[in-house]
Amino acid sequence: MKLELFCIFAVLFAVRAEEQRWAQFKLDNSITFSNATEEAVRYNIFEENLKKIEEHNKLYDEGKVSWTQSVTEFTHLSADEFSALLTYKIRKTDTVRMNLLEGFNLSVPETFDWKDQGKVTKVKNQKSCGSCWAFAIIAATESHYLIKTNQTIMLSEQNLVDCCPRKYSCFGCDGGSLIGAWLYMMETGVALESDYPYTGNQGTCQNKTKLFKIKKYVLLPKNEVSMKENVANVGPLAVSLNADLLQNYNSGILDDSTCPTNKNNHAVLVVGYGNKKSTDYWHVKNSWGSNWGESGYFKIKRGSNTCGIQQEAQYPVLY
Ligand SMILES: *[C@@H]1O[C@H](CO)[C@@H](O)[C@H](O)[C@H]1NC(C)=O
Ligand SMILES: *[C@@H]1O[C@H](CO)[C@@H](O)[C@H](O)[C@H]1NC(C)=O
Ligand SMILES: *[C@@H]1O[C@H](CO)[C@@H](O)[C@H](O)[C@H]1NC(C)=O
Ligand SMILES: *[C@@H]1O[C@H](CO)[C@@H](O)[C@H](O)[C@H]1NC(C)=O
Question: Which family does this protein fall into (predicted)?
Fold first, then answer.
């Protein structure tokens, strides 16, 4: 009898804990639902994800995985729904690859991080617009400008979202390509963020007068040794990868050999690299706000093309 009571109490308590997490989740992310049916569907997915997160973190506690998960603003979405939000597009043309450092006798340290050097601008939030490509390009340009001039410049992602044309494989909030965005920044340039602030929706292209142009871009060969050399000696790299596993990422080094290497659907900025407990990693700036992951950043395994990270590493050359 006593045991039964205890069990009932435990079940009630567990349900309440999940409901409380749900209430907190809705509050934290300002999510509301039009009706109870819709909310029930979302709550079920959230509960399923919560179970998976707990199972994953148990593996972490047992030392079987190298990263932890948590509830994020995406936890009410199914894996397929989350994947559908990731709209990065690879541009197949104009892909001359080169490593300008080849042939130099380089010193490449074992660890290096532009964030520690104060050369990375603040984490931004692309919100529910498939504009990761614009955020990766602008983050790279802002960092390279800071490295070159020791001055902070904040540039407009919205300008790229509204104005980068289809001929460059740019589709506003429906995705875009890194190379296409560089081409637009070479040809036309982008406004300052303060002159053309982010709205998170695709709008009519506005013509601004004060525009920041780049000279060219460099696309690296597909290998992580080139990436390491260039991060340490040139600056952060805009890269693409498959980000399906980032839905509930919390901390640690993302390492999963099942992550596809040829289905890149997100773009981000590699700002540094290091080694922890004999695992080499990249340190990466994301554009999902500073509440996500490690204050807006994540780490991912380095050296085995995890999630296709070596496919398209590139950086801008400034005037
Ligand atoms: C509940 O909301 C969903 C999504 O907005 C909608 O598709 C559905 O028709 C609504 N159902 C009712 C009963 O109002
Ligand atoms: C390259 O650098 C290393 C270490 O700085 C030095 O020992 C070596 O002699 C250099 N090689 C050449 C060809 O300059
Ligand atoms: C670069 O800027 C920072 C912050 O404004 C300043 O503290 C630092 O002294 C500057 N460094 C150089 C080399 O001018
Ligand atoms: C912006 O400039 C382009 C090219 O000069 C022109 O075609 C377009 O009409 C202009 N748009 C607006 C809103 O003024």
Answer: Belongs to the peptidase C1 family.
